[in-house]
Amino acid sequence: MSFFRRFAQNRGALVGLIILALVVLLAVLAPFLYPDSPWRMVQRPFLAPGEMAGFPLGTDTMGRDVAAGLAHGAWVSLLIGLISTVVALAIGVPLGALAGYFGGKIDDALMRFTEFFQTIPNFALAIVLVAILQPSTTSIVAAIAIVSWPPVARLVRGEFLSLKHREYVEAARLVGQTHRDIILKQILPNTLSPVIVLASLMVATAILLESSLSFLGLGDPDTMSWGYMIGAARTVMRQAWWLSVIPGVAILLTVLALNLVGEGLDDALNPQLARQR
Amino acid sequence: MSQPLLRIERLALALPEGADRLYAVDNVSYDLNVGEILCVVGESGSGKSMTANAVMGLLPTGVHATKGRALFAGQDVLAMNEVSHRALRGRRIGMIFQEPMTALNPLMRVGEQIAEVFEAHGLLTSRERRERALALLEEVRLPDPATALRAYPFELSGGQRQRVMIAMALALEPELLIADEPTTALDVTTQAQILHLIKDLQARRGMAVMFITHDFGVVAEIADRVCVMREGRIVEMGSAREVLDNPQHEYTRALIEAIPGDAVPPSRDDSASAPLLSVKGLNKIYRSSGGWFQPKREVVALDGIDFVLGKGETLGIVGESGSGKSTLGRCIVGLNTPDSGEIRLNDVDLRALQGRELREHRRRIQMVFQDPYASLNPRIRVGMAIAQGPIANGVSKVKALEQARELLATVGLDASAAERYPHEFSGGQRQRIGIARALALDPQLIVADEAVSALDVSIQAQVLALLDRLKREFELSLLFITHDLRVAAQICDRLIVMQKGRIVEHGSATEIFLSPRHAYTRELLAAIPGRHGERESVAAAAGSA
Amino acid sequence: MPYVSLILGRIGKAVIVLLAILVFNFFLIHAAPGDPAAVMAGEAGATDQQFLDDLRERFGLDQPLPVQLWRYMSGVMQLDFGYSYRQQMPVLDLILDRLPATLLLTGAAFVISLVFGILAGTLAAMRAKRPSGSIIMGLSLLFYATPLYWVAMMAVLVFSVMLDWLPAYGYSTVGAGYTGLAHVGDVAVHLILPALTLGLFFMAVYTRMTRTSMLSVSQQDFVKTARAKGLAPGVIQRRHILRNALLPIITLAGLQAGQMVGGAVLTETVFAWPGIGRLMYEALMQRDYNLLLGIFFFCALLVILFNMLTDVIYRLADPRIKEGVA
Description:
The complex is a heterotrimer.
Chain A: H1 2-9, H2 11-33, H3 66-102, H4 104-119, H5 122-133, H6 137-163, H7 167-174, H8 179-215, H9 226-233, H10 242-269, H11 272-275
Helix pairs in contact in A: 1-10, 2-3, 2-10, 3-4, 3-6, 3-8, 4-6, 5-6, 6-8, 7-8, 8-9, 8-10, 9-10
Chain B: E1 6-14, E2 23-32, E3 37-41, H1 50-56, E4 64-72, E5 75-76, H2 82-88, E6 93-96, H3 110-120, H4 126-139, H5 145-150, H6 158-170, E7 176-180, H7 188-205, E8 208-213, H8 216-222, E9 225-230, E10 233-239, H9 240-245, H10 250-257, E11 275-288, E12 297-310, E13 314-318, H11 325-333, E14 340-345, E15 348-349, H12 355-362, E16 365-368, H13 382-392, H14 397-410, H15 427-439, E17 445-449, H16 457-473, E18 477-482, H17 485-491, E19 494-499, E20 502-508, H18 509-514, H19 519-527, H20 533-544
Parallel strand pairs in B: 3-8, 3-9, 6-7, 7-8, 13-18, 13-19, 16-17, 17-18
Antiparallel strand pairs in B: 1-2, 1-4, 4-5, 9-10, 11-12, 11-14, 14-15, 19-20
Helix pairs in contact in B: 3-4, 3-6, 4-6, 6-7, 7-19, 8-20, 13-14, 13-15, 14-15, 15-16
Chain C: H1 2-31, H2 36-41, H3 49-58, H4 65-77, E1 83-84, E2 89-90, H5 91-126, H6 131-145, H7 148-162, H8 180-217, H9 221-228, H10 233-271, H11 276-285, H12 289-317, H13 319-322
Antiparallel strand pairs in C: 1-2
Helix pairs in contact in C: 1-4, 1-12, 5-6, 5-8, 5-10, 5-12, 6-8, 7-8, 7-10, 8-10, 9-10, 10-11, 10-12, 11-12
């Protein structure tokens, strides 16, 4: 269990893990704590936090419960962050693996393709995609996945490029293992740790992207999200600052937690300091 | 007797917590006198470089001195503050390192890097620095020193970079030069030149040299006195003559015996056997495609290679880096594709085969690799690593794993090793696992590419003996690729010497050692450190007298 | 000669990327729900059937797709990015009108983030084991994790609303009619908050990267050589470690350019900065897709030009590249 011990040695990572667990708990409990739609008007608007019992975080411009929005928003943020990362991995890992393993023309073609997506300014691309395909959870996930797979492909390709000349891979070729077995059994397991670290950071970036899109009014109109809450509060910042501060802090904490966990994973999975000496 | 230049007194250096032992070096004492070359000899992990690093103030983080003193010209460098220690570095003590390829800043011109030594100690004007740098490059006999001054490190070869390092270390005429394995990363002929250069400069300037090495051949070549270290302690110390001719400690004896020095390989049974592998007219040129508009480069790796390997024979292929010896081995096992030529195994041309048939023949040729740390997949258990080949060729998993356990026993490991992961084994053990893996497919030919080069000499001897035994037991032929003629001498029946993609000489091992015909072979033999040890050290003694 | 062919190669590659973006734009319009004519005209506004029919004819929407693609591409070749029916102006004019403000904002943010990022990263690397190093890294992680638009809003809240130190909105004081130096000063004051907030995130990126890069370079053999020469620690840090550590930063800066343009959309939206990012937000609000795609194309063009620039800088900084050694 030296993996967990190494992870736990990083105090930041532990704190991150605890925050993340709380956010996940909030997201999972949202439908039980606030069974009603977070869009429903429940009180008069602009209640400050603590002003009225039952509404610990107050109400927004339309009299909706901020706490309910926060809880439902947690669910949306985590879900979109997770799914879009999985989709991005599903695009990037195979492309990078094929490019790195086979090299030559296949590599050239796949890398030109990757470079193309990497050159396009990615937030602008996400905006255009969501705007034209119409905002929905699907289009948002698709847009985030499309702009975030290139780093995965490059990372996996780089790992494959260096690992495919390892002597154990050459030995596997000599004993007659198929390309499929070599890719899946010999090389891929050895690329996992950097991919896991990258994935945890990608979830964080995806959450930021989703919130930015919602802030610009490109969120799914059926779901309550943190970015939307901040966007809606922008015009009333002078009267009700807490309406933008509360969801902002929620995003900040979640993204921070994911980054801390990512760093902890990096320390635990790539113990370079332990290996040097 | 005057005061020694450097006196190490009961020095102990503690390793950080969690290391495999408490001290890097423990209770180490020795003296180094003016004008003397002291060789500190040991295998990896012996702590041989640590004392030198302590003297330089370059200890890795976490390692620190707990006991003893290191007196340089009467001053304890361990008790010095950083500023006065820095004033010593480069000025009174120079140091060169093992890896010339990475020891120079890739973004600075060679001249600037040499001039920096003067700058560090606030000496000379920038013009004078340049002039001195040029003079130094001349002194270390770099071809075309004026151009080299303006060159970036990547434009120089390994040997040339090491000369630059020496020029830098000698810039301020230090009283002590510390050389940490300075020739280990170089080809033999380059190694001989660099050793000669260091010895020559030492004699001319009368400095003291602490020369750290793992190679007793080098010791015979250069040392006045020797200090043999093992696991952080000194096991033997004395004059080079005493230690080489009459080693007291059995460890020293083992190290010296592992290197045959002047020994000539025994003549072996060279009755012609039936040919197993015949190679004819093999050519390979590496072309860098260089993108859309970049010029192409061509390197001839193989140029018309012909040879025959008999059943049960061990053929050595010897050459320096860039000779094409590894490409040849890789072409034979099928990791590289030659441009043209024939490779016949049991009189079947492998190059004409495809698909299943090719796989069926290919498995008769297996390979043992150089780097024991890279040749086993860290995430696959040892037993599975060996069984993979048979499984890929249709043997059932249970049977293949059973066979793997037997093979582990055959190569001298416990059968229970099958359940463990590679990181639990030492380099020598891993190399045995690699051999077991090659044997699993019941091959007729094993290509061993620098298979013992990464191992300590004492382990080398064991692995070589194992290969020799298995060869007889399994009726194998061996193609043994190495840069090290000494290793080739221990195991090979016949030798092929390669240079720049061509075979320059071909004959029985005895012939090649006793009466080399080609000039390059003679050069290689002469470059073997310690081979003509006697003559050289006599000459040096005469020179310094 | 190799330089000329190199530059030609880079330009060729850039042209291919731009052409691909055009094809992508074209198909995106056709992938959008509804009639492309309606999409172009802005789905909410143009319900006039006659107008839509005119559009269809003008864009040849009754023609086969390849013909339409050809028309679209050749139009762009002649710098015709179409017409914004919402703003009643050619797309190109709208963009060119707003471009200078965006260049000023992103340029300022870029310089701020690079200079302070490298400084902070260097400091954090040199003090890797001391509290001050940890504080720098903690702050940079904080900025890295904070949504850009939210930082912008908080900056407005604190520095404009609460403290009233700096203007919250716009490019210059409306109706003040400053000229000459006074105008420059006025714009500079308006620039401070947007440039700082946009730069903050990227500063965090560069800080982290510089630190990692410096720590890994400091493990290399040539640093030991430099110490063996007796060089002072400051000289080693500057001349040997930092110089080598900056190489990957150059590549990163090229890659970050695209992100910076995206960040500008958010910053300009919050600060009502009249650049193409704000224009993009307006196009979004009005469902003005023709304008949106035009801006998208221009953003890509900017990023590609910037990438070419960093490529040249990298080649100047690393002598190994010239010989094609890589």
